[in-house]
């Protein structure tokens, strides 16, 4: 198994995010990487830095104007001081357009563009955010390309995470959709790919990107979004559209669900993947499902992660594992170790 991570991914060091009307200290801390790295070491999987694939490699998923915004946003924000304004330490919006498509966005104002491209108040852009997001995406591309080149399994230690990022919008701690980028990379080689997302939050950005596609199956097991981020998507009735009809499955779990309920949903997900007959699989894994995670409303423990590894590894297909959320350091090490032990068994 190969694994990829760039030290540049530590540069993203957010200082704030808004939740329940309060400014909180971010949960996506660089220390998460230490725990995930320790799990890889426990399992004897070495980490290597991904090559620099540049920005063009992102355009298989993201709008070029959005990529340019992410690259320049922090410098432009700081330049507001040249006009007598007092910008905060990070780029964050203070208004949003009614029609949030960038086509309605004044191109010259970083304030207006922040509202177009940053979908909520949990994705601040600081001095290291762009570099970290770019290198996080490169880790996903490196893992996918390794699998395209014949490696059975690869893991991308992606930080920041990606599955809430849309074509032209950041949200939920996510800037570039690493999972979608990995799937797009695989599709060129394999033609038919399944994505299984087991983060506590619905993978809305990933679902939306592939929603009209027949060549990518998207399956997400997550906490019921009726009272949980991302609220507006993640329901069972969202099954895909047009050519992608019946190529999207959401398996929301009641809040408080534990290993029994998760493993039951996992069984449904594996059956759906089997029916789709993919040639390769992307597993988007988040450990914010863990029972003691600060953002969790689920009650999972290590058996769920080990069983996920067993069943997904048991598909016998080329596999890319992409790291999504998970904010309790101890649980990250435990969870990833259990998952890898299941995959490698
Ligand atoms: Zn999450």
How much strand?
Answer: 5-15%
Report the major sheet: 8 strands, parallel
Q: Number of helix segments?
A: 9
Strand order of the largest sheet: 4-1-5-10-9-6-7-8
Q: Any idea what the CATH superfamily is called?
A: Histone deacetylase domain
Low-confidence stretches: none
By helix and strand content, what is the structural category? alpha/beta
Mean pLDDT: 96
SSE run: EEEHEHHHEHEHEEHEHEH
Just give the CATH class: Alpha Beta
Q: What report would you give on this structure?
A:
The chain is an alpha/beta fold. The chain has one domain: Arginase, Chain A (3-Layer(aba) Sandwich), CATH 3.40.800. The chain contains nine helices and ten strands. The strands form two sheets. An eight-stranded parallel β-sheet has the order 4-1-5-10-9-6-7-8, with helices on both faces. The chain has a two-stranded antiparallel sheet with strand order 2-3. α6 (204-210) links the parallel β6 and β7. 52% of the residues are buried. The mean pLDDT is 96. Zinc ion is lined by residues 199-201, 286, 288, 324-325.
List keywords for this structure.
globular; 8-stranded parallel β-sheet; Arginase, Chain A; binds zinc ion; 345 residues; alpha/beta
């Amino acid at each position: 198994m190969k694994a990829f991570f760039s030290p540049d991914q530590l540069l993203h060091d957010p200082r704030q995010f808004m939740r329940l009307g309060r400014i909180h200290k971010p949960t996506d801390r660089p220390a998460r990487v230490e725990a995930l790295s320790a799990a890889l070491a426990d399992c004897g999987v070495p980490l290597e830095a991904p090559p620099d694939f540049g920005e063009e490699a992102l355009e298989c998923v993201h709008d070029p104007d959005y990529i340019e915004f992410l690259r320049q946003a922090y410098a432009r924000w700081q330049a507001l001081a040249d006009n007598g304004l007092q910008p905060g330490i990070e780029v964050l919006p203070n208004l949003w357009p009614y029609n949030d498509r960038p086509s309605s966005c004044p191109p010259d104002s970083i304030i207006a563009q922040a509202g177009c491209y940053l979908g909520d108040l949990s994705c601040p852009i600081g001095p290291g955010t762009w570099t970290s997001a770019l290198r996080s995406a490169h880790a996903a591309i490196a893992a996918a390309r390794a699998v395209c080149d014949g490696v059975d399994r690869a893991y991308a230690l992606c930080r920041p995470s990606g599955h809430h990022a849309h074509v032209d919008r950041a949200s939920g701690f996510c800037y570039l959709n690493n999972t979608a980028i990995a799937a797009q990379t695989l599709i060129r080689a394999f033609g038919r790919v399944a994505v299984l997302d087991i983060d506590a939050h619905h993978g809305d950005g990933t679902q939306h990107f592939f929603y009209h596609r027949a060549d990518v199956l998207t399956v997400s097991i997550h906490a019921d979004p009726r009272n949980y981020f991302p609220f507006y998507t993640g329901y069972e009735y969202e099954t895909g559209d047009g050519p992608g009809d019946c190529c999207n499955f959401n398996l929301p779990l009641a809040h408080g669900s534990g290993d029994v309920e998760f493993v039951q949903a996992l069984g449904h997900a594996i059956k759906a993947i089997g029916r789709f007959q993919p040639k390769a699989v992307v597993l988007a894994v988040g450990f914010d499902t863990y029972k003691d995670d600060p953002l969790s409303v689920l009650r999972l423990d290590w058996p769920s992660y080990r069983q996920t590894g067993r069943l997904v590894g048991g598909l016998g297909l080329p596999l890319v594992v992409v790291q999504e959320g998970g904010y309790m350091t101890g649980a990250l090490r435990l969870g990833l170790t259990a998952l890898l032990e299941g995959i490698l068994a």
